[in-house]
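Issue 218. Parser rejects a valid record. Input:
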Amino acid sequence: MCLGLSRRMALYYALHPPHYSSAIAQSIATALKTLIVGMAFLATFSFGFIALGLTLVFVRSLFSGSAPTPASPEDPT
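Output the parser choked on:
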């Protein structure tokens, strides 16, 4: 879902480039477009890799096979 949103943002900005008469405004608009698309893909893949890592940790915990150690009784002194 997030990858689709990032792709749609990139496609929208590719199909609708900024058209300004001022060169400075054109440069600022292009820089903002690049930052927005870059941040969208950065967020998408960051969350994707975090989800992959958490899934691998979960799977590893299922197959670890070691029983939890029992708690030691407290010393009544």
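Fixed in the parser; the record now loads. DSSP finds two helices and no strands in the chain.
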